[in-house]
């Protein structure tokens, strides 16, 4: 059974329903769950989490993977990236989320939307919103930790926006060397070109990844595309 909207959006709808009808939040959640065809919200959440995009990706990750995660705006790629970083402990790893697109308050809001209450460091996911984020910065930051890691980078197209940073090709090569040497896992979020919206295809393809600067996408081991709550995972080459 497919949900009418991603689970975080259903939670938002439940909050609105609770306010409008003076309902306890748990009652509003249960009402929405019944509308979706489930017995209760806990039934929906348990079923959905088992087949969620994050669960699908986690089941396919391998040490040394460099993964591209692409979607159009509004389809949840940043939320999915945060969820992957927050679920790193499921694979016995430490999670990191590096972003050039959001400040700390916005990331906290996104985590709240996901229903995630991050544990404080050093045990919790590390969120870094520095303007200095680049491949060299990421690798240097990770060298301070001995644990195996899952790293999420948000996002590909602005890694080389600062002129003092190396080109995109060099940065992805640097990340690839790091994940192979350390058996890390790195997910790089990427924008999909708006021309995809007019293509009529159900899912993006490699040719739809927006590349303002040259980059050989075969540097990635796997590519994940997210669209309308569905996910497709392929080998890059």
Automatic annotation (TrEMBL):
Pfam families: DnaB_C. It comes from the Bacteria. GO terms for biological process: DNA replication. Residues 126-229 form the SF4 helicase domain. InterPro entries: DNA_helicase_DnaB-like_C (IPR007694), P-loop_NTPase (IPR027417). SUPFAM superfamilies: P-loop containing nucleoside triphosphate hydrolases. Keywords: ATP-binding, Helicase, Hydrolase, Nucleotide-binding. This is DNA helicase. It comes from Roseitalea porphyridii.
